[in-house]
Design brief:
By secondary structure, this protein is α/β, with parallel strands linked by helices. The chain has 14 helices and six strands. It folds into two domains: 97 residues, 434 Repressor (Amino-terminal Domain) (Orthogonal Bundle); 195 residues, Endonuclease, Chain A (2-Layer Sandwich). The protein is elongated, with a radius of gyration of 22 Å.
Amino acid sequence: MKALQPDDHPEPGGRARDLPSGGPTVLRILLGGQLRRLREAKGISPKDAGNAIRASASKISRLELGRVGFKERDVADLLTLYGVTAADEREPLLELAEQANRPGWWHRFSDILPPWFEVYIGLEEAASTLRVHETRCVPELLQTEDYARAALEVSRPMAPAQEIERRVSVLMRRQRILSRPEPPQLWAVVDEAALRRRVGGTAVMREQIAALLAAARSPAITIQVMPPRHSAMAALAGSFSLLRFAEPSLPDVVYMEQLTSALYLDKPADLAAYKAHLDWLSVNAGPPETAESLLAGLLDELGG
């Protein structure tokens, strides 16, 4: 991820003391950003930093991006290399490394969750705003339990029932962020075709549309529906999410899930392109106030 420049923040010791609490994914990113700023301030290359901890330059890159866990010994060696020798500067960063290695709640599901998705859950938990474009189905954070189960049974036809139930449990746990005292702002643009796609049968869809109607009335949730006349362009862009964070040292991230992997984009040019497309989607989708009437109409069609 793009690091802020060294002169954008106070000295490392003071900055570390002020770092906010958060899940392990966010703490890794914050610590990685600190280490990158320290390295760049000293003019040390990733290759030389890697040599200091018996690792490669690519390992340094992964550490600085927060994509892997930290060994306390490696952090200590890097701090020494970067000239951070005073105890009052070192200890907060070493403590942060220890906190960043504590497993998140999703760790117990690591047998069914790939590492690239565990990263996303950590980012999702820390996000202050989530902008979602969904063309396939109801956005995951707004799915009912029965809808989620039916969707997983379709997308993972070979998965045993126990795995499906565990995946449903993960989703229900992820949705708790929307009921926090200060929930993130969720702004979803959903293709109308996705709402009309029968997943799990009439009863399941009736419950799901009713849940969406209730969600649309929440002050923390904005739902827009993309009408059929713009559906083709929206579908060609595909589904993706943009996550924004309250912590200023965390850059925005665009997330796109694929069948066996995912893309995380945070370069300024990529972010600008996806933000512009989200703006286009928002302008061409029905305004939020019409989503409720459309959902109410769909509910009537389902006999609700």
